[in-house]
Design brief:
The complex is a heterodimer.
Chain A (H helix, E strand, L loop, with lengths): L3 H10 L7 H25 L5 H9 L2 H34 L5 H7 L2 H4 L2 H12 L6 H4 L10 H26 L2 H9 L4 H30 L2 H7 L9 H10 L3 H33 L2
Chain B lengths: L4 H4 L7 H30 L3 H10 L1 H34 L5 H9 L6 H12 L6 H6 L8 H12 L1 H14 L2 H8 L4 H30 L2 H7 L9 H10 L3 H29 L4 H4 L3
Helix pairs in contact in B: 2-14, 3-14, 4-8, 4-9, 4-11, 6-8, 6-12, 8-11, 8-12, 9-11, 10-11, 11-14, 13-14
The chains are: A mainly alpha, B mainly alpha.
Chain lengths: 284, 287
């Protein structure tokens, strides 16, 4: 990766008088190659043991398809919930003054800091039929823990900060003069929000949605406790990778892993295109 | 923001009931998804009193898990600090082709499932992995041993320091370093006397987030650990084992330590943002 010819090429183009370029880039590339690139290459190579047809056979197993559908479906629902409520939280933090606002602002990041296993067992104890929340839902016939609904709850938790933290800075920079102008021209508050504010914050909202979605698709720790992990019903794709590994089906595990990466990549590509289109539409 | 408020409050504010609804939705959401789980951890941990709580923490397997978690973090975090500073120096202070590709590659671990992060090391170093036979011949065990835990943790926490320092150092530019070099300082002197004081809070911020993730990581280490009690169990994995054995008080007791770590991280992070917000990449963008 970091051959001698590569370095001389870099050096010629680099006219900075600041030293240490070769050394620091060398450390960066070595570390990146050893820790990230070579291991990821191993993931790409492994399924070739079984060929393309073997790969296809592995990822189109009904159990694998059900797990992929659940992982991506639940992640999508959770990201949508986060888009709605995350927008409300961001709006509240930027536009309103209330007691304890700084603490509320700080605590939004808890899902980033709290280990996922801790979140998993805490949410399970809350939503189990005898838990603080579950005991009120159970008589209504709503089962959260050990069902796909539980998966959505866990994924909503871990994706919570993304929408808030991407929308918040955009709302802070939004000039209220635009809103005043809209109001002076006779727009109602609701029309102002839809026509003036929303188009400006939409790209950020989409970014937050995409980040929450990407994080939720691969999530493992917080989900496995609350999901119940019933094959075909509440078994997520990352868990299936672990199960295949435990059965020493390395090629199968790698195949599911690659399928997840490809699907995530396509999903993020679509969102990226949507975002570009919405930016042009909003004229930002 | 609030500077605009006096003259514009009449025209650009929601009706009272809409405001109340937004506050209710926002606070209710945070209450259900953040406060309740936190409260549940501590309540469940103390369900049988303080005696049972501390008993669960000083039990030998729990102590071994705490020690292992600290060991893994003590190795993985400094390595990623060296990498993060080196990457930021190369990327922010120099021009070279392929920079945006490099930035994308540095971000890769963020977009990969933790389980896949562990999986790649099993595929590489596991008994049936690419290098498995070679490692067995030489009597080296990586997967299902401490080296695997360290590697998987390094993979997961790889971008944290670099992602904080790169935008910060880019925003600071190269003028001060160039002045120091022109005045005869060596590269190392320039870094220590000029760059480091400028980035110290950003570095601390990155280390804080990196450490929280390193100590709390579950998915990646779960795949490479092998779950040998007292040997390859970190704290989050120990929580899982205890929980699956229906030993809930002990599981939540160990979990409460991790929750305290998360809360301390949040407080320290908030203090940094309030006191040194201008010297951080994360908040500098917001102001």
């Amino acid at each position: 990766m970091s051959g001698a010819s590569g370095f001389s090429l870099f050096k010629r183009r680099n006219r900075s008088i600041i030293p240490g370029f070769g050394l620091t880039l060398g450390i960066t590339l070595t570390h990146l190659t050893l820790i990230v690139l070579i291991p990821l290459a191993a993931l790409m190579i492994r399924p070739w043991d079984i060929g393309l047809s073997g790969f296809w056979h592995q990822v189109t197993e009904t159990r694998v398809l059900a797990a992929l559908r659940l992982s991506f479906g639940a992640a999508f629902v959770a990201a949508a919930i986060n888009a709605v409520f995350g927008l409300a939280v961001a709006w509240m933090l930027v536009r309103y003054d209330f007691w304890g606002k700084r603490v509320v602002d700080a605590i939004v990041d808890l899902p980033f800091a709290l280990p996922t296993a801790v979140a998993g067992i805490a949410l399970t104890s809350l939503y189990a039929p005898n838990g603080w929340v579950g005991q009120y839902l159970d008589p209504l016939g709503i089962k959260v823990a050990y069902t796909p609904l539980g998966v959505v709850v866990a994924l909503t938790f871990i994706g919570l900060p993304f929408v808030v933290r991407t929308v918040q800075p955009v709302l802070e920079e939004l000039d209220t003069e635009l809103e005043e102008a809209a109001a002076c021209l006779g727009a109602t508050r609701f029309e102002t929000f839809i026509r003036v504010i929303f188009p400006v914050i939409f790209p950020a909202l989409l970014t937050g949605f995409a980040l929450a979605l990407a994080r939720a698709v691969g999530e493992y720790g917080s989900v496995i406790f609350i999901a119940g992990n019933m094959p075909m019903v509440s078994e997520i794709a990352p868990l299936l990778i672990v199960i295949k590994l435990e059965q020493f089906n390395y090629a199968g595990a790698a195949s599911v892993g690659i399928a997840m990466l490809i699907l995530s990549f396509i999903m993020l590509l679509v969102i990226n295109l949507l975002q570009r289109w919405s930016r042009r539409w909003a004229g930002v | 923001m609030s500077g605009h408020a006096p003259k514009s409050r009449v025209t650009v504010a929601e009706p009272g009931w809409v405001k109340a609804l937004i506050m209710l939705a926002g606070l209710g959401f945070l209450g259900f998804f953040i406060l309740l789980p936190l409260a549940a951890v501590f309540t469940e941990a103390l369900r049988r009193g303080l005696g049972a709580y501390f008993e669960a923490l000083v039990e030998p397997d729990a102590l071994a898990a705490i020690k292992l978690t600290l060991l893994v973090a003590v190795i993985a975090v400094p390595v990623n600090v060296v990498f993060g500073v080196a990457a930021a120096w190369a990327i922010a202070k120099h021009k070279f082709p392929g920079k945006s590709l490099l930035l994308t590659l540095i971000d890769l671990p963020f977009s990969v499932s933790p389980v896949i992060s562990g999986l790649v090391y099993v595929l590489l170093f596991g008994a049936h992995g690419l290098m498995g036979p070679f490692l067995r011949e030489h009597g080296v065990q990586i997967v299902f041993a401490v080296p695997g835990l360290v590697l998987a943790t390094m993979f997961i926490t790889f971008p944290f320091v670099a992602r904080e320092l790169i935008p910060l150092m880019q925003a600071q530019g190269v003028d001060e370093e160039e002045a120091a070099i022109t005045l005869g300082a060596s590269g190392w002197q320039t870094f220590r006397r000029v760059t480091l004081p400028n980035i110290r809070w950003g570095l601390l911020y990155g280390v804080l987030l990196c450490n929280a993730r390193a100590m709390g990581e579950f998915g990646a280490v779960s795949v490479v650990s092998g779950h040998i009690r007292g040997e390859t169990n970190t704290m989050p994995l120990h929580v899982e084992i205890l929980y699956n054995e229906y030993n809930f008080v002990a599981a939540f007791a160990v979990a409460s330590l991790l929750a305290i770590l998360a809360l301390v991280t949040l407080v320290a992070k908030s203090l940094l943002e309030w006191r040194h917000g201008a010297e951080l990449a994360a908040t500098a963008r917001r102001h």
